[in-house]
Amino acid sequence: MCDCSVCIAILKKVHRSTRCGLQSSAADHSNTTKSSQQDRQQVWSLRKLQHTTLGKSLAKKPIPTKSCTFKVMSYNVLAQELLESHPFLYTYHNPNALKWDQRWYSILGEIKFHNADIMCLQEVQVSHLQQYTKDLGALGYKGIYKQRTGIRRDGCAIYYKESLLNLVEYVTIEFNQNNIWVLDRDNVAIVAKFAPKNDDQNEFVVATTHLLYNRKREDVRLAQTQVLLAEIDRIAYKYDPKRSTDHLPVIITGDFNLTPKSPVYQFLTRGRLKYEHLSNRTLSQEQSQYSNVTGKTLIPALLRITDNCQHHDLVEKRNRGVGDLSRDEELKLISLQHSERKLENRSRVMISEDMFSTGTLSHDLRLRSAYVHNHGYDSEATTYQNDWVTVDYIFYSGDSVETQRRSEDRLKLVSRYTLPITSKLEGMKIPNMALGSDHLSLVVIFRLDP
Fold it and tell me: CB neighbours of 315 closer than 8 A, spacing ≥ 6?
């Protein structure tokens, strides 16, 4: 979607095309069951494309020549093995909607409908990879995949339109780190750097992850986020004295298994979290009165990830004015373990004690959510977990009215595909014959300025 004229046409016609696409889809499948028709009508009536102020202006005037507009989708597609191993969660669902062939038909149909330039998927089952590669390849996508560690048979994937984007580089992250009790789970992430084919200098970074589900272990999700941000900092770092930030534009997607009220969400969007006084494990202010608190140490210094979510030894190199390091040279300076590489014993620079165990985490990525999360009763939702809740997100750097500095950033939100509010979702069961997963997809359009 890096063709500006294409973007403008989409922005002008999307509402009309959405309705027409829905009608033609129903007409093309005359054998669709009544249940399927009802599911589809209920689902699509709840969502629409919503333009930001910038998005509305794009329909009226041309985009700057060197700017690039692209669409990002994030979707937890529900691994079939996980569905089948938790049948009690789907007792009252239409059994036909739980079969993989039907679910993949619905998932693929949604992918075709949105036609995103970058898709970030979670719970992609290893045994289905060949099917993903074949069907998505036919649509022009090329993919990156990282399976969860341990015995898990699903993982995260990023698919991108090869005709529009160059994959510059990528890394995968394993959150399970030996001898660190708060990082003992098999979750993973992918961090990829892309550039539009029509401007290979206009790079940006996209990451996706699926954090731990356990509701009582907010501390694990916070530690996983600290590791994720450290790796994003490493890949996105690019010193440029002409810019107000030392990082490329960043997009972070995934199933974070946390709500907008959670400490980790607040940390991501505010850039700072004081956790030492919060209850251990749950990171609750209320429970801290009745249980032990977390204290000053979340991740021990032996991992050499600072409380500013950066690799300590890389920061020391930057501070000393050392020029750009190769990725191989960087790997010699970080302590993250990974099953695909050997962690060698090497000499280390002396750590700065004030960068670890401070009881407060911070980061410099200046993130905000692409969606507006209401905190009242009738808030939007992405999945059902005893109640309809939001746990899936697309975060991005910049385009905020909070400070003048942020408004100068290169990555700007053009529009979002809205999420339904909880009162409209009452009684809905997903997966159903229209939606192939137990999560709703997130779809947004960004503009990247040079």
Answer: 306, 308, 355
What DSSP designation does 308 have?
T
CB 303 within 8 A of CB 336: yes
Q: pLDDT tier at 20 (50, 70, 90 boundaries)?
A: very low
Alpha-carbon dihedral sign for residues 62, 1, 75, 311:
negative
pLDDT tens digit sequence for 193-241: 999 999 999 999 999 999 999 999 999 999 999 999 999 999 999 988 7
The rounded distance, in Å, linking the Cα atoms of 248 and 239 is 9
- The reported pTM is 0.90
Token readout for 14 is: 């999307």
| Highest mean predicted confidence (pLDDT) among 9-23, 115-129, 353-367 | 115-129
Element (H or E) spanning 166, and its range? strand 165-174
**DSSP for residue 25:** H
Cα angle 279, 284, 290 (rounded to 5 degrees) comes to 55
User: Hey, CA dihedral for 253, 273, 410, 200, is it positive or negative?
Assistant: negative
Predicted local distance difference test score (pLDDT) of residue 15: 38
On the CB side of 16, CA atoms within 13 Å amount to 5
What lies within 8 Å, CB to CB, of 411 at 6+ separation is 204, 249, 250, 251, 396, 397, 398, 399, 446, 447, 448, 449
Task: Using alpha carbons only, give the angle 33, 34, 37 rounded to the nearest 5 degrees.
Answer: 90
- Please report, for residues 55, 133, 405, the alpha-carbon distance to residue 396 in angstroms, rounded to integers and kept in the order given: 16, 27, 15
User: Which single residue is written with the structure tokens 């997966």?
Assistant: 431
